[in-house]
């Protein structure tokens, strides 16, 4: 099952590689990983999407908690949560394709943020599956380049990860 | 005007504040300022080893035998890469160490400088934590944190990498009295609800079994464990790392369990109905294949300070996270206060079964043989030292015979590399043990292959007059490799025969030690006695033993505990 683990860690050099190293050393799967400082400059927040059996995810959480830099951690997917990912897609857009792409981008509530006479660059945010859905809807031959941020997420309502 | 100290002075002052008496190391370019400061003081004695691996093993043996944090000092680049085997060894067995490594000057980091290596990167997977100190003002606090992290919670090695220029720069010296890390707060006290549940389960057990490991030794919980086991009158078994946590000569102890554990211990593990695991982690060498282990229906209570050790390999019914000492104390108090008691009739039936298994006498060997049997050497060593020596071992058959035939009644007397299985550990570890316990009997049980991996330390032993007794069980084979080749590779002894062995007697003599070669069973006892009578000399006894002897019982890899090969 897919799990989204959210953690607060000391904003120190090398902390990220400790997490990444933990996954590679123990053979865990990282689907995506995004990290940035928080409103407290001494803390970074990391969102980690992974898949595995309940036992594996339990071990992942225990091992992450063992890292000295990890201050607090929750498995967002335990309860309600919202997730978003940002994707930038560069598409070949000429002739009648231009209108069709524009319509599709509107349906997915994306924005065209850069235009040349042959190319559209599109910004899309949403859940991972929505972004995957957009890529499936578009003719693969048109895709020139993709950059995705990886999942970021927050617990719903009162569920807050904070010190 | 405030007095400022250099980074090198600060480092040494920190070590003094921590009460460090011995430090094991090897100088080099990046640590010269540190060595200069060591030279100027006499509170900390530096032990010069002959290879950095040995520095860490020696600090490790020091820590294991004394319950203090062991300290090693190595230079940058090859100094620290040599130390990695020692660090990984300590990490696998949760030994508290602080390793100080030199690093190239901060300006040179990342420039592929001479003797530069990404120390923090290389050691990251095999330390509890590590630091690169880039600012001299953070040095003292970092060293304080290193000692704190190394010695609390589940202990482990912590490395502090110090660039050369940081050892030259000056800062005011303030050694913090205490450390508080918001992200590191090991749980010591076990959850009371869980402990009460565990007690109910214990009281209702029909076929109980207690299984304890290195956590009991590390947490100094031998007295609490002994009280617990005695009060319940349950059978108990130990992992390789737990030996000495409960008196091995006591009736309730059924021997070590696992791959080379006793028949009675393994059968009781497999067929008990309630298993109480204490400071042990269900290692593959302990329970064999977890699938086979979990075939049997039994309830498991697991006490461990490290939550990630619980339900890692086998599903546990009652997890108790906490220090072994604290949890056992709670359990002991509850048991004493409890109105319910164990059904002694049911328990005595279980003991009857255990005694039947014990009657197999699975550790028997040919005592009348005309060639020296390695088991007999260990038994004689036990008799002559009254079971009171510190025993270090290397890795292989001799290690298992040492574990099976030397009866450890006290904790911290059995010093071996259990988790990583590091050949070359025994001799340097013995140096650390001897320095931490001057005047005590220290013997290194080794083999001709293992001893050669760090044999250069005979030189260190000479320099510091360490009267270690080296018991070399010489069968001219990497015995354990040969044993596996016999069992699983059709007797094809690929590269396991050790050809061109040195004359160990002459070798020992060339370093200034006493050497003996013994090849008759009748001479074993006399040689050992003579060796221990030479109480101020290192004696290297090369016992020429039976080449064909194997370690039994044996649970082959991938099998269950009840699928033992017996003699």
From TrEMBL, chain A:
A GO-annotated cellular component: cytosol
Catalytic activity: 2 pyruvate + H(+) = (2S)-2-acetolactate + CO2
Recorded GO MF terms: acetolactate synthase activity; acetolactate synthase regulator activity
Domain ACT positions: 4-79
The protein's annotated pathway: Amino-acid biosynthesis; L-valine biosynthesis; L-valine from pyruvate: step 1/4; Amino-acid biosynthesis; L-isoleucine biosynthesis; L-isoleucine from 2-oxobutanoate: step 1/4
GO biological process, one term: L-valine biosynthetic process
Keyword annotations of the record: Amino-acid biosynthesis, Branched-chain amino acid biosynthesis, Transferase
Origin superkingdom: Bacteria
EC number: 2.2.1.6
PANTHER family to which the protein is assigned, alphabetical: ACETOLACTATE SYNTHASE SMALL SUBUNIT, ACETOLACTATE SYNTHASE SMALL SUBUNIT 1, CHLOROPLASTIC
Family the UniProt entry places it in: Belongs to the acetolactate synthase small subunit family.
Role description: Catalyzes the conversion of 2 pyruvate molecules into acetolactate in the first common step of the biosynthetic pathway of the branched-amino acids such as leucine, isoleucine, and valine.
Quaternary assembly: Dimer of large and small chains.
Protein name: Acetolactate synthase small subunit
Organism name: Nitrosomonas stercoris
Species lineage: Bacteria, Pseudomonadati, Pseudomonadota, Betaproteobacteria, Nitrosomonadales
TrEMBL record, chain B:
Enzyme's top EC category: transferase
GO cellular component, one term: acetolactate synthase complex
Catalysed transformations (reactions): 2 pyruvate + H(+) = (2S)-2-acetolactate + CO2
SUPFAM superfamilies, sorted: DHS-like NAD/FAD-binding domain (SSF52467), Thiamin diphosphate-binding fold (THDP-binding) (SSF52518)
Binding note for cofactor: Binds 1 thiamine pyrophosphate per subunit.
Domain Thiamine pyrophosphate enzyme TPP-binding: 394-543
Organism: Nitrosomonas stercoris
Lineage top rank: taxon: Bacteria
Every Thiamine pyrophosphate enzyme central domain range: 195-331
Any Pfam family: TPP_enzyme_N
Keyword Metal-binding appears in the UniProt entry: yes
Names of the cofactor(s): thiamine diphosphate; Mg(2+)
Family, per entry: Belongs to the TPP enzyme family.
GO BP of this protein: isoleucine biosynthetic process; L-valine biosynthetic process
InterPro entries: Acetolactate_synth_lsu, AHAS_TPP, DHS-like_NAD/FAD-binding_dom, THDP-binding, Thiamin_PyroP_enz_cen_dom, Thiamin_PyroP_enz_TPP-bd_dom, TPP_enz, TPP_enzyme_TPP-bd
Name listed for the protein in its UniProt record: Acetolactate synthase
């Amino acid at each position: 099952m897919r799990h989204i683990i959210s953690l607060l860690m000391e904003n120190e050099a090398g902390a990220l590689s400790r997490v990444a190293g933990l996954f590679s050393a123990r053979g865990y799967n990282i689907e995506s990983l995004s990290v940035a400082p928080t409103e407290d400059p001494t803390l970074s927040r990391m969102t980690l999407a992974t898949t595995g059996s309940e036992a594996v995810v339990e071990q992942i959480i225990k091992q992450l908690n063992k890292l000295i830099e990890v201050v607090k951690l929750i498995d967002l997917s335990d309860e309600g949560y919202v997730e978003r990912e940002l994707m930038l897609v560069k598409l070949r857009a000429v002739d009648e394709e231009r209108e069709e792409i524009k319509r599709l981008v509107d349906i997915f509530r994306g924005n065209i943020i850069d235009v040349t006479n042959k190319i559209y660059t599109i910004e899309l945010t949403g859940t991972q599956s929505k972004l995957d859905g957009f890529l499936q809807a578009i003719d693969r031959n048109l895709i020139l380049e993709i950059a995705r941020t990886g999942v970021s997420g927050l617990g719903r309502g009162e569920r807050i990860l904070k010190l | 005007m405030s007095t400022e100290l250099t980074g090198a002075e600060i480092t040494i002052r920190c070590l003094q504040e921590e009460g460090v008496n011995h430090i094991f190391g090897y100088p080099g370019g990046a640590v010269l300022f540190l060595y200069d400061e060591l030279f100027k003081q006499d509170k900390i004695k530096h032990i010069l080893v002959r290879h950095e691996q040995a520095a860490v093993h020696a600090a490790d043996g020091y820590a294991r035998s004394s319950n203090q944090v062991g300290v090693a000092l190595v230079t940058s680049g090859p100094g620290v890469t040599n130390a990695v085997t020692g660090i990984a060894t300590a990490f696998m067995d949760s030994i508290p160490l602080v390793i100080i490594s030199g690093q190239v000057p901060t300006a040179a980091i990342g420039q592929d400088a001479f003797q530069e290596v990404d120390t923090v990167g290389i050691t990251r997977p095999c330390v509890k934590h590590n630091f690169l100190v880039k600012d001299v003002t953070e040095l003292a606090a970092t060293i304080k944190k290193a000692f704190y992290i190394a010695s609390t919670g589940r202990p482990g090695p912590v490395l502090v990498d110090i660039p050369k220029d940081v050892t030259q720069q000056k800062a005011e010296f303030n050694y913090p009295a205490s450390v508080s890390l918001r992200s590191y707060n090991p749980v010591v006290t076990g959850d009371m609800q869980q402990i009460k549940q565990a007690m109910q389960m214990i009281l209702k057990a029909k076929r109980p079994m207690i299984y304890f490991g290195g956590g009991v030794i590390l947490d100094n919980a031998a007295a609490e464990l002994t009280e617990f086991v005695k009060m319940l009158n349950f059978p108990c078994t130990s992992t390789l790392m737990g030996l000495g946590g409960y008196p091995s000569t006591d009736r309730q102890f059924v021997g070590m369990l696992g791959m080379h554990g006793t028949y009675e211990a393994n059968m009781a593990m497999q067929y008990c109905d309630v298993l109480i695991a204490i400071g042990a982690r269900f290692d593959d060498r302990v329970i064999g294949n977890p699938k086979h282990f979990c075939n049997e229906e039994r309830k498991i209570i697991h006490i461990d300070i490290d939550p990630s050790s619980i339900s890692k390999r086998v599903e546990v019914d009652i997890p108790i996270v906490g220090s072994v000492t604290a949890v056992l104390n709670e359990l002991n108090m509850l048991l004493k206060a409890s109105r319910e008691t164990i059904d002694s009739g049911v328990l005595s039936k279980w003991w009857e079964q255990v005694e039947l298994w014990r009657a197999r006498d699975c550790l028997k060997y040919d005592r009348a043989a005309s060639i020296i049997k390695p088991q007999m050497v260990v038994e004689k060593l036990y008799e002559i030292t009254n079971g009171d020596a510190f025993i270090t071992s290397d890795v292989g058959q001799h290690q298992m015979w040492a574990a099976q035939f030397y009866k450890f009644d006290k904790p911290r007397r059995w010093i071996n590399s259990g988790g990583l299985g590091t050949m070359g550990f025994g001799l340097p570890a013995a140096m650390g043990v001897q320095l931490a316990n001057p005047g005590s009997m220290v013997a290194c049980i080794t083999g001709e292959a293992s001893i050669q991996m760090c044999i250069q330390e005979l030189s260190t032993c000479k320099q510091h007059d360490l009267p270690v007794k080296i018991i070399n069980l010489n069968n001219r084979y990497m015995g354990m490799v040969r044993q596996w080749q016999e069992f699983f590779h059709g007797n094809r002894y690929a590269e396991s025969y050790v050809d061109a062995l040195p004359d160990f007697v002459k070798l020992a003599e060339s370093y200034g030690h006493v050497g003996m070669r013994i090849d008759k069973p009748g001479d074993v006892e006399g040689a050992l006695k003579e060796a221990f009578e030479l109480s101020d000399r290192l004696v290297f006894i090369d016992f020429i033993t039976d080449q064909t002897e194997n370690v039994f019982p044996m649970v082959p890899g991938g099998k269950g505990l009840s699928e033992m090969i017996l003699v």
